[in-house]
Design a protein that fits this description.
Layout: E1 12-14, H1 19-27, E2 33-34, H2 41-49, H3 56-72, E3 79-89, E4 92-94, H4 100-110, E5 114-125, E6 128-141, H5 146-156, E7 177-181, H6 184-188, H7 192-201
Parallel strand pairs: 1-2, 1-3
Antiparallel strand pairs: 3-4, 3-5, 5-6, 6-7
Helix pairs in contact: 2-3, 4-5
Length: 207
């Protein structure tokens, strides 16, 4: 992307290794650097959710802020975007499956039921978060047969291991669902409209 909306403005960094979040920002016409936050995300998730002190909505926001601030400490003049997404299924927080068998079990558990995706995004500069928001989408899966799940996983491949819930709704994963209530970008893990509004307000992109 040319980054024509950002000429002469502060640099922008995405503190994430997520390919889909990078594609979303590229699609919006932004020029940015990708810089992984270097945090042990699994340890952080356990720390903030293990005692159930924080709900899934707050867990997502804490992690998004932590990612943005970690990179912002190293690039203090830049504006850094951090993001996180938490899948809440009843009173459980589901994480990315670590194997195809774990993905199969997740889909069997979610089959015919409703879950929520809490997606948070934060912007940090000078080592501090200056803005964050968390938005929620509600999704209900169709009743899936074990045979269908097997065929789906064979078709989708190990890419599903990069997604909480073992689906990528922007591709073949859409076939798993009965109803979806929520913003498309929230489901993908990056509330884009409020993020762009904030970047305009801060003078990072042209208004």
């Amino acid at each position: 992307m040319s980054g024509f909306l950002q000429a002469g403005r502060p640099p922008l960094i995405l503190a994430s290794t997520s390919k889909i979040r990078a594609r979303i920002l590229e699609g919006a016409g932004l020029a940015f650097i990708v810089e992984p936050p270097g945090l042990d995300e699994s340890v952080m998730r356990q720390a903030v959710s293990g005692e159930k002190v924080l709900g899934p909505h707050d867990v997502a926001e804490v992690l998004a802020r932590a990612k943005a601030e970690a990179v912002s400490e190293l690039a203090r003049k830049a504006y850094v975007i951090g993001a996180d997404q938490v899948l809440a299924f009843g009173d459980q927080i589901l994480t990315k499956p670590d194997s195809m068998e774990a993905a199969r079990r997740q889909l069997l558990d979610l089959s015919g039921k409703t879950h929520m995706l809490h997606s948070s995004v934060a912007v940090a500069t000078e080592g501090e978060t200056i803005w964050s928001t968390t938005e929620t989408a509600t999704l209900t899966m169709r009743k899936l047969s074990p045979e269908f799940i097997g065929h789906y996983l064979a078709a989708a491949g190990e890419e599903v291991l990069n997604s909480v819930g073992a689906y990528q709704i922007e591709s073949i994963g859409i076939q798993l669902f009965e109803t979806i209530d929520g913003d498309y970008y929230v489901i993908l893990g990056l509330p884009l409209i409020p993020l762009l509004d904030t970047l305009r307000r801060e003078g990072v992109i042209e208004a």
